[in-house]
Each structure stands twice: as C-alpha cells, then as structure tokens.
Design brief:
By secondary structure, this protein is mainly alpha-helical. It contains 2 helices and no strands. It has helices spanning about 5-30, 30-55. It is elongated.
Length: about 100
C-alpha cells in the first residue's frame, strides 16, 4: 500500500467517524461530551490536512523524515551572534555572581 492509499483510507475512516458522530449527536443531543467529540473530529480533519500538505511539500526523491532517522549535526561552531544577550542556564548573567 502506498502513502497515498493510506491517506485515502484514513480520510474515508474519518468521514465515517464524522457521520457516526453526527448520528450520535442527533440521537442524544449536543451536550458537552458530544461537542468535545465533534471538536476532536474537526481537529483530526485539520491534522490530516496538515499532514497531506507536509507530505506534498517534501521533496519527491526523498521520503519525509521519521522519528528514528539520524540527522547530521555539523561540528562547526555556531555563529556567536546567536548568543548575544543570552544568559548561561543555571549560572545567571555574566556580570552577577552566584550566591
């Protein structure tokens, strides 16, 4: 199964969930719990749309990064301008003394 097939399957399942929540809401009313479930389904739709956008924006020759993928970090020093006006964590400002 391709990623596109998986996304299509998720969309269909989400559509079925939205319909089921609508039927449930019609039967028991729109109380707080039902509104939460409705909100959750809306968030799932938004999250799926963001996922599809992210996958569409990924370069076609390289799959999207995964949690277990190694990301190389260069050994070159960072630009010192990044640390201007920064305090050393746990040590306080450089012009003050620790207690």
């Amino acid at each position: 199964m391709s990623v596109q097939d998986d996304l299509t399957a998720v969309e269909r399942s989400l559509d079925a969930l939205v319909q089921a929540v609508g039927k449930l809401e019609a039967r028991i009313g729109g109380g707080l719990d039902v509104r939460r479930v409705r909100s959750d389904t809306d968030h799932l739709r938004e999250s799926l749309a963001l996922l599809k956008q992210g996958l569409a924006g990924a370069s076609p020759g390289r799959p999207a990064a995964t949690d277990d993928e190694m990301v190389p970090v260069p050994d070159t020093p960072y630009n010192s301008a990044l640390w201007t006006d920064a305090e050393d964590e746990g040590l306080g400002a450089k012009d003050r003394h620790a207690p």
